[in-house]
Amino acid sequence: MSAWGRFREDIEAAKLRDPAARSSFELALLYPGLHAVWAHRANHWLWTHRARFLARTGSQLTRWLTGIEIHPGAVIGRRFFIDHGMGVVIGETVEVGDDVMLYHGVTLGGRQREGGKRHPTLGDRVAVGAGAKVLGPITIGADSVIGANAVVTRDAPADSVLVGVPAKPRSHRQGLDTRALLTAPDYQI
User: Fold this and answer.
1) Coil, strand or helix: which one is 91?
2) Which of 24, 61, 84, 161 is most buried (CB neighbours < 10 A)?
3) Buried b (16+ CB within 10 A) or exposed e, 34-44
4) pLDDT band at 100 (very low <50, low <70, confident <90, very high)
5) How far apart are CA 185 and CA 189, in angstroms?
6) Residue 176 has pLDDT above 70, yes or no
7) 70 DSSP β-pair partners
8) DSSP state of 151
9) Spatial distance between the Cα atoms of 104 and 26, rounded to a whole number of angstroms
10) Between 32-48 and 52-66, two packed helices, what is the crossing angle to 10 degrees?
11) Is the entire prediction scored with pTM above 0.70?
């Protein structure tokens, strides 16, 4: 897919996930979550082509401009959307699937200093609520929801709803989409 096609796909994904979005022009010009993702793509390209200092410089500039820190080594899927992104941190070995959504204050971070895989992997269509911390080399299965302020340190199977500190899975009510689950009173901490 061309770069222009990816831009349009990202804007459409943002329209789908953010009821406050008014127009494609507004999204492209004013949404720092989109800007951070777009900058990450360029920085990731530099990272994978061994221009690591330039990639880190670009990621730090993006952090300064948007308040969103995405390490250039992170692997991000298609239609990734960060809503109200201030304070989001995504570590070097993070892997994010397609159609994933994060809210502000989310950390996808590590718990150890050793090299290798030390950050989480999020499956497709995962939604992560505001302030949640997903830590360590764990895997969150597809179609899962992580509630606001949850601290997740263990693997979770597909279709999980994770809430609490430490996060524990709760049953998933059939028929609710992930956006609805993030605001459902039954799933709050």
Assistant:
1) coil
2) 161
3) bbbbbbbbbbb
4) very high
5) 9
6) no
7) 90
8) E
9) 19
10) 170
11) yes
